Amino acid sequence: MNNFGIENKAKIKLIIKTLAVAIILYVGIISTAPTRRLISLKKEVYADSTFRESHSFVLKNRELFNTSKDIALQQSQLVLADKDTFALLINLIDSTVNLMFNGVKMHSANIQNFEKDLFYNSINPIVYLQLFSKPLRILNEYSTIVKEPIISRKAPKDTLEAMNNSYIPDTLVQSPSYFRMELEHDITIHLIPYDAGSSNEKVLKKALKKYVVKSRIHNNLHNLLLWKKVKYTPNLVIYIRGDEIRSLYRALPSNAQLVLHY
Amino acid sequence: MKTISKILRILGNYVKLIQLSLEKLNWYHKLSKFLIPILLVSASLLSIIYIPRILTPTALFMFKHHYIIEEKDSAWLASEKEKLAITAKQLDKQLATSIPKTPYLIINSTQNKFFLYKGNRMIREGRCSTGSYLQLEKGDSQKWLFKTPKGEFKIRNKKTDPVWKKPDWAFVEEGLAIPSPNHPSRYEYGVLGDYALSLGDGYMIHGTIWQRYLGLPVTHGCVRLNDEDLEAVYKTLFVGSKVYIF
Description:
The complex is a heterodimer. Chain A is α+β, with helices and mostly antiparallel strands. Chain A contains 9 helices and 10 strands. In chain A, strand 2 (about 95-100) and strand 3 form a beta hairpin. The longest helix of chain A is centred in the N-terminal third of the chain and has 30 residues, at about 1-30. Chain B is α+β, with helices and mostly antiparallel strands. In chain B, strand 1 and strand 2 form a beta hairpin. Chain B has a 5-stranded mixed β-sheet with strand order 3-2-1-13-6, with helices on one face. In chain B, strands 7-10-11-12 form a 4-stranded mixed β-sheet, with helices on one face. The chains are: A alpha+beta, B alpha+beta. At the A-B interface, helix 1, helix 2, helix 4, strand 3 and helix 5 of A face helix 2, helix 3, strand 1 and strand 4 of B. Strand 6 of chain A pairs parallel with strand 4 of chain B.
């Protein structure tokens, strides 16, 4: 009995030690996921030697890179100008989120604040030009906003019923606007309402943090169980007014295109 | 390497010191059996919080392209800058062709606002009313959805003192029987204001007698403006002018 108890204790200690070391190693692997994503992107882009050689000057001088970024923005806008559909243009340098149609700016919303993952600042200049010199497609989207707030009403039988059923929309009741877009290259953009410290804004911020942490944990555990590579989704959180988010979301078709400039 | 080994030695000495002082306590002997597992579990829990905060930014910083030695050769730099400037100019010209040369109107149907432009310059803005998204249902077969369509449109024609020819839904909505197509009760005078600009498919930009509802989504799909704004829009736009609704 005593030997059995001692053996069990030793096994338990060994399991705890192994688990602890495994957790530390795994956390280390997850922490380097952004860097590994950058490395894989660089490999993909550098595989095209023509593009790499024609743009190698951006690696030599910062000013040339900044000018090339502006040109990349213009090139993306030109692609959008050819499409007869609404698209988004997010310009973090000008702090604006713009709705575009056929090259014409329909609407411009001011960005109050934004938070971007460190991933974005560490992108290789040539990789930046390759990724962001054309629009990105929105592959998935989620929003708390109703795209078409249709209200059904039965036709009244007579004029008296018609008078009693006259309808004026209630525009005061609005659920907090939130819009999330999942783009190509696993980029995720969140539009959060900036309502100067209102309770809605705080609730949404908390919910967003919870979502980001939960989705990363879920993805990582899911990939671990299936013995797949750790997936990293670079997040960009943009704070603009709630009614602007509503306007932008309702204008966009599904799988719209988005231009990002920062 | 030397520094790291020094640090590890110092840490090891501290651990021994803690061990020695704890040995004086009675409960240490019970605790010491589980000391290493407890330390490892705590380390792994703390690592979940702290390793990403330290390792991620460090790894990203090391990977980032740093302009440590920037190419400052003035001749080369000048020629590259010139090439880029030429490209930027050409692209600017191409982009400028997509902006309409003639005045155009933009309508925000979510916020119920309009913006009148001449080129890149906004010359007027104000409130309007757009579709209510009400769906009127008569039985199972007839449905009308009152929404303002989105996209790019052109002014098809312009009218002064427009007369509204009421469609079927206008009678259904009021609980009235639908009259014949050219019945006099179909024609209403004065409800569309002084001017109307047609966008096609029955949609128009016109005035309204219900000015207090401007800024609200209350229409059956048309765009309503107040009298002054309507006059300005009517006089600025002409047949063929673009109207963008989003």
